[in-house]
Fold these 2 entries.
Entry 1:
Amino acid sequence: MIAGVELINVTKRFGENTIVDSISLSAAAGEFIVLVGASGCGKSTILRMIAGLESVTKGQIMIKGRDVTQVRPDERDIAMVFQNYALYPHMSVAENMSFALTLTRTPKDEIKRRVGEAARILGIEQLLERKPKARSGGQRQRVAMGRAIVREPSVFLFDEPLSNLDAKLRAQMRVELALLHKRLGKTTVYVTHDQVEAMTLADRIVILDRGAIQQIGSPAEVFNRPRNVFVAGFIGSPVMNMLKGYLVAEDSVELPDTGARIKLSLPVRGATGKPVVLGIRPQGLILNEGPDAVLHMQVKVAEYLGTETVLNGTLANSDEAVTSSLNGEHGGLAGKQIGLSIDPAHVHVFDAGTGLNLIH
Amino acid sequence: MNDQRALLAVRYVALTLLAILCVGPILVMTLTSFKTQAQTFTTGLSFFFAPTMENYRDVIFDSSFGRYLVNSLIVGIVATLITLLLGCMAAYGLARFSFAGRKTIAYTTLMLRTVPLAVIAVPVFMIWSDWRLTNSLLGLILLYVAVNLPFTIWLLYGFVLQVPVELEEAAAIDGCRPWKIFLRIVLPLIRPGLAAAAIFTFRIAWNEFILALVLTDRSTRTLPVAASLFVTDIGVEWGKLMALASLIALPPLAFTFLAARQVISGLTAGAVKG
């Protein structure tokens, strides 16, 4: 099957700086791919190279099996939605949406049909004759998506499209985006720094750091089997606890400060005494007031979030920060020392040197 | 409370004085244009006199008035159009293309504007004579374009910088080539800047006196130069001079009024971002 979008060893340099370092990536036709990473990781540059707004230093970009590396943006069969919407302020909503079609001299009734249909899908029919300037953020975002839809492209590109919206609207638009993708079934490459968007929208997530791919996988894969410390720390909320330790057996890690021994669910590769980083999701630290508690935590702040309480503090006898996420209301634990046991399903072991996950 | 009132009073007095200072000369000019030569000296600044249209009649029906008016209009309009055309393209280039010395050029263009026109009168006359551009409207137009271009570029540069690059990128994806992006996206968005530059350029080209006096002759004279002809060896024809001056002031007034509406509508058009 021909990939919707394929990047082959794509590199981007600005002078001496390598922004994107020999990345290869393939999105199947109809697949929703999310590029996620901290700012400066190169995700937007990758998107802009796919769009043709940025030249490629080395490598190849294919869209539907056609090499478009040197092709102008408008001939790549793509449409892009920008972070700040980039609506033409001097044109009405309808003119914004139909601009590309008028440039290609599409027949008037065809333009009208497509604009009407896109407006109906997005619920912006009543705005068509208005100028975009006075519209709310959500409406402008819809217009920007409408402008992309009417072109009926093979590939949709989204550059942090929801980051200018408030939290409530963002959640709503996220759902609409998911529905829209289901309805249109087009290959989509979506850039965001928000892991919630990545987890909820993506068929596959591409996690980037310093211009290189750290892991590609489904949301469940990157959450349950993070390939390295970076991915483990990036995906999941609250952030995974990272504790220094060393192997004492192939299925046991000891934390030096507390002397606690943690039993692993699976044996790992590596010699006894090997320094490791023990990654424990906050959800894997369970309140245990009994004598068999593995760890003891000095709680500093308890954040009650409704269905869960996030405890922030340090390990007893150590200054290593830990976070625990408990179901229910536990605000009363602030300032107290508590015992914790560990759910092995939420434990990962990383090589202290390379950062690679030793279990998965 | 009393302090604030006193302050307010002081402000009003200051503003009133300023207003008188601005409007006074125009008022005197207009009043004098309706007086006979004799009345000019007998009535002083008085509002009470029998107005006459004689000065206007003499000025307008003078055999050369039509020609001077046409000269002024050609020079003003053509110089403005050329200045805007070159200015917007230069400003766009400075704002969007990267080349060595770009920033320096962008910020030093305005310095050319600080040279007083009288200073360049003699060198310009020599060069223009050499190139056979004296006594022609073309020579005057070229000069006004050169004089106004730096300010226009500097002004429009700021406007182009305010157009988000994403708009141009969106247009590129929509299928615009660079020229089309410039014409269909950038130009409409910097319209307020174009209007402001047009007001400025037209006003200078229309009103400029010293260089026009040096570079024109009987047939290419512009209106301000024509007005100076009323200052003669045997005395100043105040009534006619003021009548012509009043007439000269009208087109820029009308033009500014029209163009200023573009500036204001542009200023309220709002930003692109949410």
Entry 2:
Amino acid sequence: MTTTHGEAVPTSAAGGGENVSTVPLAAVADLRVSFGGSEVVRGISLSIAPGECVAIVGESGSGKSVTARTLLGLAGPGSLVRASRFTIAGRDALGFGPREWRALRGRFAGLVLQDALVSLDPLRTVGAEIAEVLAVHEVVPRPRRADRVLELLESVGVPEPELRAGQHPHELSGGLRQRALIASAIAADPELIIADEPTTALDVTVQAQVLRLLAERKAAGAALLLISHDLAVVASIADRILVMREGRIVEEGPARHVLSTPAHPYTRALLAAVPSAASRGTRLATGARRIRSAPNPSAQVLAGTALGHAYGPRRVVDDVSFTLHEGETLGVVGESGSGKTTLARLALGLLEPGHGRVAIARALGPRPDVLVCDEPVSALDVSIQAQVLDLLADLQAEYGTAMLFISHDLGVVHHVADRVLVMKDGRVVEEGDVEEVFTRPRHPYTQALVAAVPTTAV
Amino acid sequence: MSALTRGESREPLPVPAALVRPTAAELPGRLVPPAFLVLLAVALAAPGLLTAGADPLTADPLNALAAPGAGHWFGTDHLGRDVLARVVYGARHSISIGVAATGLAVTLGVLLGLAAGLSPKWLDEALARSFDVLSTLPELLLALLVVAITGPGTGNVIFAIAVAQIPNYARVIRAQTFVVRRSGYVEQAVTFGRSRLAITARHILPNVLGPIPVLATIGIGQAVIAGSGLSFLGMGPQPPAAEWGAMLSEARNYLRVAWWEAFFPGLAITLTVACLTVVGRRLQRRFEGRTP
Amino acid sequence: MIRRLGAGLAVLWAAATAAYAALLLAPGDTVDILVGDGPDTPEIRADIIADWGLDRPEIVQYLSYLWRLLHGDLGRSYQLQRGVGDVLATQIGPTAQLTLAAAGTGVALAGIIALVTAGRGRWLRGAASAAELASVSVPPFLIGIVLLSLFSFTLGWFPVSGAQGPGALVLPALALGLPIAGVLGQVLRGGLERALEQPFAVTARARGLTERALVARHALRHALIPAVTLAGWFTGTLLGGAVITEVLFGRPGLGQVAMQAVTGRDMPVVMAVVLLSALAYVTISTLLDLAYRAIDPRIRG
């Protein structure tokens, strides 16, 4: 059965009529998937109506990816799938053989994975990858395929499609190749798009573009199953959210409900643990207020003056200056390739600056005065991330340690930092008090960054 | 003074396949290779225990090419020598060639690889190229060059095999050195202001040696093969010394009438190398399983 | 590409220099070494001194040695009383035949092993693993001996020795090709299995591809990458194995020439064989490097 959901009633593309919206594209009941005796999906039920966007949110190991792949018959080698009900497009999928599954894959449902650098065959051109779907399902006769590939690339917003179709994934930027991956998933015009962490490896502005693209496909009539570890990512696009934990669905409901009035403690903890402007000065794991000592502006512990570093002709850090005081956290934000990590290494003396100098206050004693953190939480689940950030805050409160905190995640920096540097192409484009910079950004780049950050606010 | 924490901006890897515990049926396969290596150790240390007093060099022409039986379990060769005794005593020649060549190659390889990995770029490049040149020559041809100059003999064969195998170890050590040099703990040590020598000795050397036991175990096996190949061609220990390759070389003239003269030394080489390889690979899996 | 050729030439130069250094560093008088076990007359000694310029400064000797090599002059065998180039030219044919046949056999068998066993059940994989272990544990000459006693002595299908007719090539090519098949097959299979676990394989399956098409269009190419990096091992196994195989099967060829030269301490011939082997190595590894570039677009830029 389908749930009611405001704006996402399917219209023309799915065929129209009441009839369609009552037959779910995919429906499973009491789905269980196990690998060699350990059950990773433990009895979940889920249905996706035409034109609807359902999001499954959970931390790693929650079984969300396995659930998504099982819907394509791709649970993986050694898997055992059981369910009391498992229908795909109205047909009972429990009895499907390999041939039936293959007929559905790509045609009925397309799959978009994380990181197109490895999710597209790195040895083949983007065009060949997209054309493969057309060939397998014979949706377009051979002589027309090349043209169709270009149309598809164009439709997902890839500029110069003739050039791009002949390139390999590594020759494309992260955003373009993720678009190409989406183009290959939608090539045979499937009714359902399954997107498993489709924006996870991407910079925040690119992430926003990819989400917009998926929203466009939904507006064009495709149903969407979105898998993410990040509630904020799905907030803007999902009609319904299912929160998974340890193979079970702990909460499900319309997106607004789940985000604004979460019923289950785990959902509340997940939401509270997301570092953001609102969480400043609180312990992420518990939500309690945290007492912290103010930075001491008279005691400078680390300073860089007009730092520069180049790899060959490329200036990765160009004329960057900063100061860091006792007990202070200086955030450095920027997208990949902005020079953040090089700056960290310059600050630590691990790299010789091409010019400029680093001054470190001499300190006696066993404890470091400065902690340089380079993406310390970027690969972590939100609950672990919360614990690490709380720990760093405790260290700082207790010892007055200064921190140079580098992250691509604006929410994390907003949570921890006192001041912030915004880097782009090796240069600092804006700096100042974190509150000031993130709420009233002056530089257009900062404005774009801030605007692109997904939030759970509804 | 300052410390670094760094996260990888990647998703966590998928859960690895569960480690498979050996079943009862697999247990013999797990135990046989180490057991055979123990047997080899006995053959090296106290060959008399295994030969029932037979001597590898005593010829008995009247009793030549006798089939395996009660008196001679592995039969006798074309000169009437006891094949069992020759195989057992032969372990000394064959295995000492393998062990000595590997030891020499590892020592030189570690030194050269470490030197390359820690040197300025131009010197590193030069050393890396010289490893390449060295490995252009198949060890057999390198050995031919050495033997042509120095004449046949055990020492020369050891030297030839060692030289040929240096690049294998040097390359691995060089690559490891690069990894270790850039790793967090060496960076920590640098930021803590430790001296270069101290860092090399305390942090780099122990950490680059990790793959060596595994490589050397497998390397000994390959050196035994190379050594027996050279002996087969008549360049190793000279007759009447019992060396497995040399025994096979003599035995091939009697294949039609006395399979055992070739069979047992061939089996000895094969089992030795196979067991070393299996044990080496098992060590490798254990190493890889342990280091994250 | 120019860089690659330059590196190849550098390797050849280094090999030539190493062979020359070995000659000079060897204990004893260089003339004695060059005479070796051959006829030792004052005329021959005078020839050697003239040919190698031993009466001139060492740097001139070395440069003129390189100069001669550049012109394809490999020197003279004082034992055989012939030019080294002539000696090698007559013997290169059978060796090329043997190594090419062995390489073809090895690669073909490896491909079959990998395709048949990748991702299959325990028994098949176990058998392939055992075969691979055997191929690295059995010395190449022992494989030859086993093949000889089985197919020549017992069954009488193939001649015991010589190089007459294609029948005489079968066993030597097998003896030389089997170790290659074992190792290469294992590497290919590992590459296939790794490729089939990659995210792009999931994507390709999600397009509706059959497993067979997935292997043919995607995984096989990935599996070739680690195989291509075995160039050095491959060349060494072929060339080194060729010597042993030729001796064992009594085939004419460079291996026999090399063995006789070593036994008779005929240095000019030994040095030429070493150089030829370096040339073969450089050629094969350059070709495989080109193949690597064709396979993997990521290393082109």
